[in-house]
Amino acid sequence: MELPLPENQGFDYWLRKSCSKLVDESLILMDESLILVDESLILVDESLILAGESLILAGESLILVDESLILAGESLILVGEPLILARESLILVRESLILVSECLGLIE
Fold first, then answer.
1. What is the pTM of this model?
2. What pLDDT is recorded for position 80?
3. Per mean pLDDT, which range of 5-19, 25-39, 58-72, 90-104 is the poorest?
4. Helix, strand or coil for residue 58?
5. CA atoms of 81 and 85, how far apart (whole Å)
6. pLDDT at 64 over 70
7. What CA–CA distance (Å, rounded) separates 80 from 70?
8. Distance separating alpha carbons of residues 72 and 84, to the nearest angstrom
């Protein structure tokens, strides 16, 4: 003949069962959290790759800007050279006119 279980042993069984269920649910939530963490790390990695590519493109843009400024400077130099030559030509014309004027003065 079996002895009946004491009244508090049924509560202990229920408590262990409830705790076991809570542990199982906690493990499931922890697993889902780890999956979300993994997905977040993948997104962070992709964001860092995109940020790196953006920095590369920005660097290339700055190189192009630098090259454009160099070309603009060279263009200004090229524009300046004919102006210098034109100025020198005008000086020579002026000197020629002075010499012609002096010659005309000597002839009279």
1. 0.54
2. 94
3. 5-19
4. helix
5. 6
6. yes
7. 15
8. 18
98: its two tokens? 């002075």
Residue type, 13: Y
48, 103, 104 from 108: Cα distances, Å: 89, 9, 6
Which token pair is 85?
Answer: 């030559």
What band does 104 get if pLDDT is binned at 50, 70 and 90? confident
Kindly report the backbone phi and psi dihedral angles of residue 84, in degrees, each rounded to the nearest multiple of 5, phi listed first.
-65, -45
Cα–Cα distance, 63 to 56 (Å, whole number)? 11
Instruction: Scan for tokens 């002895």, then name that residue.
Output: 3
Which two structure tokens, joined as six digits, stand for 12? Answer: 């202990």
**108: which DSSP letter?**
-
C-alpha–C-alpha distance, residues 80 and 44, integer Å: 53
CA gap 5, 86 in Å, rounded: 119
pLDDT digits (tens, 9 = 90+) for 10-19: 778 888 888 9
Handedness of CA 84, 85, 86, 88 (dihedral sign): positive
